[in-house]
Amino acid sequence: MGRPSTTSRPTSRARTLRELIDSLPPERAGAVFTHSSWAAERTASYERLEFLGDSVLELSVARTLFDSFPGFSEGRMAKVRSHVVSRASCAVVARELGLGERLRAEATGPPEEVERLARNRNVLAALLEAAIAAVYLEHGFEATEGAIVEAFAPRIEYALTSHVDHKTELQEQLARTGRTVSYTTLHVDGPPHDRSFTAAAMIGEEVAGTGVGRSKKDAEQQAAREALVAVNGAGGDGDPASPGTV
Q1: Separation between Cα atoms, residue 179 and residue 237, nearest integer Å
Q2: Helix, strand, coil: what percent of the chain each, to 5?
């Protein structure tokens, strides 16, 4: 079962987030690239836009997760969204869109301060959220949402494949049918400085999955992952948790 596309909405005629930001009229773009230390009044900086853009970003990501993954629980969607909209994730997208360079080009502050700010993760994230708000005010939610989802698609993919809590997902999935899971350590191999743990995920009295890791926690996560495949293969609800379809 393949993963539903996180960019499934038509984009052939849609403008990218970079294009929408680049085409902002001066009166909207001005505040986006104004740090509070350069503004005559704090409200003339990007901070108010940042507040609005944060909400637009969260709603866009929440909607695409809700639409694209009907088998996801509320808890799993919240975890994925939290990673996607994090400061670190926003800073990555801001760099990809060249917002640091734009800040350098339009800054009115001292060059050394400008350079420091243009490299700062929190500032880059704030610039992105401010730019999203400006695009939303200029073009409305529909155009902005599609552009956001496209720009953040790699971050969504990364969150889906790299930051999955298999134990929580298995627990939530089993709870729907009144079942529970427990974990037991089967083997501990190797010297103290180079241990390898083998764990089993137990559903009732049966071993539903086993996993190996450098810690008990890692081994249990791998066991839960294998158990999810078994549960779904046996007709359980939810999305399969194989490596390509987590």
Answers
A1: 13
A2: 60, 10, 30
Query: Could you tell me if 143 and 15 are in contact, meaning their C-beta atoms sit under 8 angstroms apart?
Result: yes
CA gap 95, 165 in Å, rounded: 28
* Six-digit token string for 137: 């005010």
Crossing angle of helices 141-162 and 87-96, in 10° steps, is: 120
Q: What pTM was computed for the model?
A: 0.64
Nearest Cα to Cα of residue 29 among 113, 120, 133 = 133
Annotated catalytic residue 54: yes
- The single residue of 27, 47, 54, 112 carrying the catalytic annotation is 54
* Separation between Cα atoms, residue 89 and residue 92, nearest integer Å: 5
- Residue 144's Cβ-count burial label (10 Å; 0-12, 13-18, 19+) is buried
Local confidence pLDDT in tens for the 246 residues of the chain:
334 444 444 444 579 999 999 999 998 999 999 888 887 788 888 999 999 999 999 999 999 999 999 988 887 888 889 889 988 899 999 999 999 999 998 877 788 888 998 989 899 999 999 999 999 999 999 999 999 999 999 999 988 877 567 888 788 788 888 999 999 999 999 888 888 999 999 999 999 999 998 899 889 989 998 998 888 765 444 433 333 332
Of 50, 129, 150, 226, catalytic: 129
Q: Any catalytic annotation for residue 165?
A: no
